[in-house]
Amino acid sequence: MTTVEISSSPTRLGHRTDPGSPIHSSVTEILDYFGKCPRCGYPATAAHLAHTYQDGSTGSENIATCGQPCGWSGPVTVTPMTRPQPTMSRRSPKTHLPQHRSNIAAATA
Q1: What is the model's pTM?
Q2: What is the pLDDT of residues 1-38, one digit of tens each?
């Protein structure tokens, strides 16, 4: 994942009114975005833009950009392609090992 800190950014944030110039912005590449350009159909890349403004408010948006030079870029909705993996319970190897051996013994009997 790549995160870039920038000193200025666009003031357009969807439905928000302009709260002033951002005092802090960051851009993080969205690695699991697999969208396509609506103009030419070429694969697009996406990034999450997060802004903090002078009045203390914050805002963010996801922007995609065409991978070809057609010039398209625009806001997108990112849908994760994978689900978060469940956390594995920590079982003692002593608890797990006898169970495994009994399954092998039952299979060979």
Answers
A1: 0.56
A2: 444 444 444 444 454 556 678 889 999 999 888 899 99
In terms of Cβ atoms closer than 10 Å to its own Cβ (0-12, 13-18, 19+), residue 77 is exposed
Distance between CA atoms of residues 80 and 3, nearest Å: 19
Of 73, 61, 76, 48, nearest to 14 by C-alpha is 61
| 60 contact partners, CB below 8 Å, separation of at least 6 | 13, 48, 49, 50, 51
d(CA 50, CA 30): 13
Q: pLDDT tens digits, residue range 36-66? A: 999 999 999 999 999 999 888 999 999 999 9
Q: For residue 39, how many C-alpha atoms fall within 13 Å in the half-sphere facing its CB? A: 12
Residue 14's region, left for phi above 0, alpha for psi from -120 to 50, else beta, is left
Encoded tokens for 18 = 């302009």
